[in-house]
Amino acid sequence: MVVADDDPAFRQALAALLAEEDDFILVAEVADGEQAVTATAEHRADAVLVDARMPHGGADLVRALASLDHRPAVVGLSGNADAATWTGMLRAGAAGYLLKTAVAGDLAVLLRRCMRGELIVTVPGAAEVLRRLLESAA
Question: Which domain holds residue 79?
């Protein structure tokens, strides 16, 4: 797993939390999207936890990671609940979008679910936004 967040303290806290899980192997901690792509490709990481608002992040980063030949699960993690941000990341191929304030002790469980192919969004009101998007696309 690669953890990508431009806040060093938060990145280290995530790494420490994930290190407690036997089934997660943290291969890199990085501070921007370019480093995330490089580390993910180099280590063939099966999952990448990315801050939506870090430098070179967001939907463009998700697209770059999703285009890697081994197709890692990309999960957005942010304090931003803006619908345009999280729907943009999902459209780009993210397996989930988790609010930093909404995951608490559930991060490992939510990541496992995303890695199994479940679409997880912990943004309040997300179901209604998704319903409206689907209705407008029909």
Answer: 2-137
